[in-house]
Amino acid sequence: MKHEICINLPIAPLEVPTLRELVGWEGRHSDYPILFKRCNFWAGCRDAKNELIAFGYIAGMGLQHGYMEDIIVHPQFQKKGIGQAVVRKLLEEAERVGLEIVTLTYDSKHTSFYTESGFIPCSGGLWSVAGT
């Protein structure tokens, strides 16, 4: 089955936290639906049962630079190209709206996924209240 990736797919507040938990991340229930109001745009897709199986978004000022985050694919649908399709759709939308630079951070085990998606690894920095 081919899964259609949609920009600004209508998503209920509990759907993304549920998907986050399915991949072993903290649900961050209080982030939704606030995130949908604050990010530039998001992408997602559903399975044949209309359940959310993939999600990702780009946030930022929306002028020249955006930050891609939370590329999530339901465990039963991983390794089928859906994650890269979400990334491609987000980058197409970024280009359409005039973003010239999109950055992201990722665990080094995902380097090949993101280089295959068109990203160039580079150094950077991280500041966190928790100090990590």
TrEMBL record:
The keyword Acyltransferase applies. Keywords: Acyltransferase, Transferase. InterPro entries: Acyl_CoA_acyltransferase, GNAT_dom, NSI-like. The keyword Lipoprotein does not apply. Residues 7-132 form the N-acetyltransferase domain. It comes from the Bacteria. PROSITE patterns: GNAT. It holds the Pfam family Acetyltransf_1. This is GNAT family N-acetyltransferase. The lineage of its organism: Bacteria, Bacillati, Bacillota, Bacilli, Bacillales.
